[in-house]
Design brief:
- The chain is mainly α and 348 residues long.
- The protein is built from 18 helices and no strands.
- The chain has two domains: 158 residues, no CATH class; 142 residues, no CATH class.
Length: 348
Amino acid sequence: MVRSPSFGGTHLGLEAHADYPGVPGSPPTLKPPLSFGLLGRLLLAVAFAVAFTSIGWKEINPFAFPDLENYRTGFDSNWFLFQSLNLSPLDFFVSEGVWVRGFDALTSYVGNIDSAFDIVSFISVALIAWYVIAETRSPLYLPLLVNPGFVNLVEEQIRSGLATGIFLLAVRARSPVWCVLLALVAASLHTAFFLFGGVLIFYRLARNLPSYRAIMQRPFVGGATVLIAAAAITWLRTVLLSALGDERAFTVEEYNSGVLLSLAWVLFGAWFALQVRGALFAFEALLLLFCSTLAFISAIQGVYGARFFVIAATTFPVLVSRASPLIRWPTIAAYAVFATVWFILWFQ
């Protein structure tokens, strides 16, 4: 990945990254604290995954993982397998048949569905951690992944967690072909990643267009554009799910704090967009602001959308790593308070 000019030095800025081409006259790049090769990143990612999955989250808060029981019921009864039978290749793909057959094969191989849960969780954490280390060139930002949403993503919503890890590989991919293929694999596990993949492909096609650059160079204009797009897609998503009879169109947030949680991530995204010059050139900032806004509007409408900000928040450590110290340390402090309060509420 060819690194481009960045926004650092004495200004409030981002470290060099291929996702945005840079603004003329940008100050020098902030230097990364550490650097690791491919093997080093892999070992660090595996070590983090071992440490994280060894905590025993299910024992600490056993009532926070209801989706696992749904998986257990569906696979033990073979209901999920039955639903994936006699489908056309296209229907099999969009019905997430790849996930059903793959997880069923894994469960049969290891002989225990709980072990299969643990394996998928471990792989998800390792993939996400590898992405963060590869982008930040340091393991020091990995603790910024840890919050109740991330715990639920990789330990409970394991299908979304695995799809997130694969999608982040697509974000990292240099080759357009690999980018599209990995995005499709993520979408085959969870259809929500058709939206994420669409945003990624649009971004890669549009980022060098003069009109796109002109919009994203202006924080208020760029941010407003992202917010309007998120609102439009939220409305369209509700209409489409309702037309298809998808029950997710009528699912209300489980927690009363759904609106506040998504609003918090909107504020984090807006903070980067307004305080860091050229932030919206980075795909991670664009994704965080877009998805958190989508989740916020969904929560207001009583439509399920919490997974959007949880998935996008896996890019948060990358954004923090590229910010100058004037932005980085206040953001880390704010996140520490936010995550602590979230954990307190989660344990209740």
